[in-house]
């Protein structure tokens, strides 16, 4: 039983192991995407969105800000794919360039709430008592307001900047994250592996962060992708009513607002294309959730 | 055997479509059940015994399908029958009892109502006499005060009581065939005996046929007319129950039989024939007490049944109800190198005791002296930082649940070393984990797997490796083999005995199974209602128990007709 071990090259082992682990993750991701065409489609859409956000401004055919009084309110054509607006700006270019700002708002606000809300929820669920009471009451207070009105109030009070839109979007999503993390933590608080971690000398804080958090991560991922779509909508909504991003900055919400009045007079393209982009982005994030969970969860990797 | 069997399974093959292609869970199985016969299907996990029964009930999940063969129920072909015809048969002509009775009952509906639902579904009753019929069904499964129990919710009943309700549900429409899938797993031995006796009596009374699916060969042999042994989807042996223990013909049956703990055998007898065995070294237990528990008490406040307001209004004359004592003043010693069994049924306080000794739970009063040092006073919350933490370790009941699903095996084993030992380089840590894996008989190339990629026995070994990583003095074994197959249990028990001999640890073995405890322990403590009812040398307690409760426990273990 305790025969002298034939030691393999210990130094070479970890790197090789890590490489195969990476390969396994990638092949698993490929499998998840291939298994479900909807997941594949949503990841494709995400890739396009990210591409637009990264290199959009350098590939668009027209300057999104330059107005051309000779070519105002033109219908979609080969020169202006999505037509032009009241100031003769190219809507196609504006829609593409706006991707970066809208995605940035969504990603930063969701990341912020993921960290803050997730950690408070874990603290509330794991330690209970006062931690639970404080986090719970903060959540209840936020939930007591109509969320969009609350976001309006926060942006109006803090000042009309992109940073404040991010903060406001994060605040209104806080209860969702805190409650999910709290519930999932309570389920896992007394399971065998948490007790085992306690026996092996882990402190409470370490158990919460290294044992419980990774285990609730797959669920939080789904929540993240769902609120991502919601965050984009929220940012666009704030811009639509004139808060947050200011013209002439291209942003989907403002563009829809600018075009809304022209729909009746027949210029449908001004509001339609940014609206469509908004819809596709939200749609993409809502679809991606399940696929993302399957990739993050090691138990699905059989 | 009558000429026309009630249930005839011929050449049945069930396939499951998975990512890795098609898996045959059941391969060319032939089973026939005559009218009034009780047939046991015995096998370990993965043997296809449950899948066979699901195929009979036509409740295979979507990935599974009957690839070939046929199932006929009193001449009616079940494999090709339309769904509505099978639905009509289920519950009325054939019904099923599942493993976890609590999960099989709707938690928010009164049990009486649930029985009425079944009766109504199959038009066995009008609304007028439904209640009477439901109470009658409850009375039939020997539930005391059935009129009161009619209004109970499942959570208000004990596990054994819930299983009786499930049996009442299954038998409400007087079916011809009852399939019981592990009906007593998770129940205490005395409850198991009561439930099995009930099933057998009822089926005999009504001339029903029963299929008992179980992993316990002893249970099947004790209660069935015929036993079918399955391994890896195939039937390896079919024999009369009284013959199977006397003359097992297949090697697998012999292996299963040997692995089943029974009186009068030693630990090594559990292993398959021809396995290389060295005698277990018996280290001399020294006289010095390693652990000494004195007058240990754990109280829980009683849940108030009266509302807060009525308590407030009648505050003046409130008599404080006595708190519930889960552990009621127990004292015992464990000497260095000794293994002590702590036996009792669920709710007897054995787990609470082990949690207090483990310092995961604070006692209400009493002292726990470990190695001459009082540890009962140290609060459980901060004990993780104490230097004694590494000296008391534990092997958990469910190897799956006790391993973090996101840690690989090597990460799980290295966790105590990282937290409680001196810092060391990654290579040295890896090497130490590989050594530990070798000690517990886990192939080192499995170390990078996640728990869900390991078998039950391998997970148990990871749990044991984690517990012994820091050379503890005392290891608490909390039913370490309860979730394992018997053949795996045999190996794990032997491993534990060997480890104790080589590493000189003491064990506190918490279990409900006296036979298993008898194999591994020098002394045994029997607990009931938070108190110790009997304590002594294992052999004496097993052969000549003095307490009535111990006698009841021993006699409840199913005895195969030898």
What does this structure look like?
The complex is a heterodimer of chains A (302) and B (562). Chain A has 10 helices and no strands. Chain A has 302 residues and is mainly alpha-helical. The longest helix of chain A has 37 residues. Chain B has 20 helices and 20 strands. In chain B, the strands form 4 sheets. In chain B, strands 6-7-8-3-9-10 form a 6-stranded mixed sheet, with helices on both faces. A 6-stranded mixed sheet of chain B has the order 16-17-18-13-19-20, with helices on both faces. Chain B has 562 residues and is of the alpha/beta class. The interface between A and B is large, with 33 and 42 residues.
Cα(first) to Cα(last) distance of chain B is 22 Å
Briefly note the CATH topology name of the domain at 291-300 and 322-403 and 473-556 in chain B. Answer: Rossmann fold
Strand content of chain B: 15-25%
CATH H-level superfamily title of the domain at 291-300 and 322-403 and 473-556 in chain B: P-loop containing nucleotide triphosphate hydrolases
Q: What would CATH call the homologous superfamily of chain A? A: MetI-like
What assembly state would you assign to the polypeptide chains in this entry? heterodimer
Straight-line distance between termini of chain A: 30 Å
Show unreliable segments of chain A: 1-14
The radius of gyration of chain B is 26 Å
Characterize the biggest β-sheet of chain A.
none
User: Mean pLDDT score of chain B, rounded?
Assistant: 83
Helical percent range of chain A?
A: over 70%
CATH top level assignment of the domain at 291-300 and 322-403 and 473-556 in chain B: Alpha Beta
- Helix-strand makeup class of chain B: alpha/beta
CATH class of chain A: Mainly Alpha
In terms of structural class, how would the helical and strand content of chain A be classed? mainly alpha
SSE arrangement of chain A, N to C: HHHHHHHHHH
Corresponding CATH architecture of the domain at 291-300 and 322-403 and 473-556 in chain B: 3-Layer(aba) Sandwich
Helix-residue proportion of chain B? 25-40%
